């Protein structure tokens, strides 16, 4: 094999070696150059070690490779010479470079910038050039760490841990991290106050708002009442903020809970007359609290459909037994390591490795449906694993019936479940879809699927028979430009029109809004300005008389203006169903100003899901581990920051960071 061009080679060493002349580097005491018999040097670019006779590249008189060779093959020699100050190639005149024991240096003809690690390990006699506490860099890094602690709910104890401080030092050794008490007593409370002021200013500017309230169990007893406000801002974006997390001790009277909530909401200055309604899950205590406070209520769509499906499965003996058999199957596999390994092997052979069996530990119908759907997809692998002893061998037809009933509902809920999109106006169209398609009886359906569909639909529809609930749904659907009166029942459109006009007049009478004459496109196109004419034409005079008479006639009454505007709105083309209705209102609000005000009121209601539920379910265990659940004030601060910083990108809060 021919010799390679690597720095170090095992080629045989020549018999003649001479010392390099005109060099000041101490490393050449251990290297020489190859020469001929007459003493002439063959090349200056290859050095030969005097200790081991290995060849090493030394192009351009660069000594970095020579130091590297000693560090690798002769560490005791390297340690001896590395403590000396040696001239660095390419360094400014008069300066030298420090070679430290155990640190291998790679050479370069260009001047090499020292890294942060080099600077951190420099001589202790030189002072560290750390960022001053008053510098912008120090402030920015501290604020970013503060944002991380607040958003992710990380315990402040992490700040004082040596591992975390070492971790930050590896990124930027010039940043001196403040003590944990600085974050606990200064920066986190400061961020809370800045965020509270910003949200309060935004909430104060809203025309109307709705709310979601949840009463969630606490891990150490009692419960927490979570209040989230929803509204549409001036730019027609749907916003929501978690304002209050209040601890409710066990057995506390309804009156005390209501009064406590009102007192906590006082600093936010939320006028009751601007409240559209409160969306809640099924809870007798919460219902009584809202009745005591006199706040209008609306049932949560997600909660009601969960109750309907859960009740349908539990009351059907065959369905209940099939679900229990699925749980037993997963338990038999997960508790036997050999069986689990064999199943994974079979799944890999059948290209089913993308699926994973998971029991519905939460008891929620969506988790149950996912469990059943996964078992059906893994049926070939499970049957091959157990053979005739398959625990669910006789249940596959029943499981298929449950999956046929719940699968389409699951797809709809996945699409509509969000607090960031308008969803109240979608409930009536969704009810129509459930009746006519999703839960409609089909010829190929299993008997169990037919029974489940009927029970789910009846239980769900009955929850929206309340008169007040119907009014809210009808108004919201009509104010959604995707649907308008499309899903109105016979004789319902006229009553909805009266309700909308009546509410618009009430808003005008209460002084919460002004009835504005709509600016339709046809009005502006008929006006022609002639600034060069000195004498008014007869047509111009008649037009002025016509306009003056319109103001004085009864047609300018608020009810008539609202009637005219609502009819014009209904005549406008509908949007595509997959469009955002708020985008349409953003462009057309000036054409239908009074309808736009009502759209802000009703389209802000979050009826598909109470978003504050996910907040506490995800953080409850984390709070318990950090020992924070015993202090309600700490819980309120931690969850307020985490929730409100999570639902908005960091760029939204650049002005407070």
What's the layout of helices and strands?
Blueprint (H helix, E strand, L loop, with lengths): L7 E2 L7 E2 L12 E4 L11 E4 L5 E3 L6 H10 L1 H8 L2 E2 L10 E2 L17 H5 L15 H17 L9 H10 L8 H25 L4 E9 L5 E10 L5 E11 L5 H12 L9 E6 L3 H10 L3 E3 L1 H15 L1 H18 L2 H13 L15 H13 L1 H8 L9 H21 L10 H12 L8 H16 L4 H12 L13 H18 L11 H5 L12 H15 L5 H14 L9 H8 L4 H10 L9 H14 L6 H15 L11
Parallel strand pairs: 8-11, 11-12
Antiparallel strand pairs: 1-5, 2-3, 3-4, 4-5, 6-7, 8-9, 9-10
| Poorly predicted parts | 1-14, 85-112, 120-127, 521-555
Give the count of helical stretches.
25
Question: What is the average of the pLDDT values?
Answer: 77
- Structural class determined from secondary elements: alpha+beta
What gap, in angstroms, lies between the N and C termini? 64 Å
Largest sheet: 5 strands, antiparallel
- Helical content, roughly? 40-55%
Record field, number of beta strands: 12
Shape verdict: extended
Strand order of the largest sheet: 1-5-4-3-2
Beta-sheet strand percentage?
A: 5-15%
Instruction: Give the C-alpha Rg.
Output: 38 Å
């Amino acid at each position: 094999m021919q010799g390679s061009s690597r720095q170090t080679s095992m080629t045989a060493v020549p018999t003649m070696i001479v010392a390099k002349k005109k060099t000041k580097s101490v490393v050449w005491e251990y290297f020489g150059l190859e020469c001929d018999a007459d003493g002439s040097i063959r090349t200056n670019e290859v050095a030969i070690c005097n200790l081991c006779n290995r060849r090493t590249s030394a192009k351009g008189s660069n000594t970095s490779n020579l130091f590297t060779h000693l560090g690798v093959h002769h560490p005791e020699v390297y340690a001896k010479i590395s403590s000396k100050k040696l001239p660095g190639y390419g360094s400014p005149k008069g300066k030298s470079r420090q070679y430290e024991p155990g640190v291998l240096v790679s050479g370069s003809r260009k001047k090499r910038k020292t890294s942060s690690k080099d600077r951190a390990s420099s001589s202790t006699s030189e002072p560290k050039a750390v960022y001053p506490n008053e510098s912008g860099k120090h402030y920015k890094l501290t604020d970013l760490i503060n944002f991380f602690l607040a958003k992710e709910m990380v315990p402040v104890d992490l700040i004082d841990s040596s591992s975390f401080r070492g971790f930050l030092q590896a990124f930027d050794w010039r940043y001196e991290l403040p003590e944990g008490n600085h974050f606990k007593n200064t920066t986190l409370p400061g961020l809370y106050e800045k965020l509270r002021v910003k949200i309060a200013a935004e909430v104060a500017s809203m025309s109307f708002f709705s709310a979601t309230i949840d009463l969630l169990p606490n891990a150490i007893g009692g419960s927490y009442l979570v209040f989230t406000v929803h509204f549409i801002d001036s730019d027609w974006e749907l916003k929501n903020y978690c304002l209050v997390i209040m601890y409710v001790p066990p057995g506390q009277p309804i009156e005390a809970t209501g009064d406590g909530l009102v007192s906590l909401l006082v600093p936010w200055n939320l006028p009751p007359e601007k409240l559209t309604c409160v969306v809640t899950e099924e809870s007798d205590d919460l219902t009584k609290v809202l009745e005591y406070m006199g706040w209008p209520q609306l049932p949560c769509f997600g909660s009601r459909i969960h109750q309907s499906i859960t009740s349908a499965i539990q009351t059907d003996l065959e369905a209940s037994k099939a679900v229990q058999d699925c749980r037993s199957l997963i338990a038999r596999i997960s508790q036997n390591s050999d069986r689990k390994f064999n199943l994974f092997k079979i799944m890999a052979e059948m290209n089913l490795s993308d699926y994973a069996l998971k029991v519905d530990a939460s008891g929620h119908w969506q988790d149950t449906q996912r469990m059943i759907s996964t078992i059906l997809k893994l049926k070939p692998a499970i049957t091959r694993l157990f053979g005739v002893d398959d625990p669910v061998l006789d249940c596959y037809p029943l499981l298929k019936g449950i999956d046929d009933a719940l699968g389409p509902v699951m797809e709809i809920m996945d699409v509509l479940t969000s607090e960031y999109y308008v969803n109240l106006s979608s409930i009536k169209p969704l009810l129509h879809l459930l009746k006519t398609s999703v839960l409609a009886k089909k010829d190929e359906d299993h008997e169990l699927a037919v029974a489940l569909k009927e029970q789910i639909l009846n239980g769900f529809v009955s929850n929206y028979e309340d008169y007040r609930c119907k009014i809210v749904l009808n108004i919201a659907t009509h104010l959604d430009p995707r649907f308008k009166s499309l899903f109105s029942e016979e004789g319902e459109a006229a009553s909805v029109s009266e309700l909308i006009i009546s509410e618009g007049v009430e808003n005008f009478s209460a002084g919460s809004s002004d009835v504005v004459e709509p600016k339709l496109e046809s009005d502006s196109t008929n006006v022609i300005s002639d600034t060069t004419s000195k004498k008014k034409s007869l047509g111009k005079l008649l037009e002025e008389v016509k306009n003056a008479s319109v103001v004085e006639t009864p047609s300018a009454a608020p009810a008539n203006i609202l009637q005219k505007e609502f009819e014009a709105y209904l005549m406008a083309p509908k949007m595509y169903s997959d469009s955002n209705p708020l985008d349409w209102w953003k462009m057309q609000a000036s054409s239908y100003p009074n309808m736009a005000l009502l759209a802000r009121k009703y389209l802000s209601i979050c009826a598909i899901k109470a978003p504050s539920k996910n907040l506490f379910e995800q953080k409850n265990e984390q709070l318990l581990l950090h020992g924070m659940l015993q202090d309600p004030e700490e819980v309120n601060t931690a969850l307020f920051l985490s929730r409100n910083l999570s639902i908005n990108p960091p760029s939204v809060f650049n002005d407070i960071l």
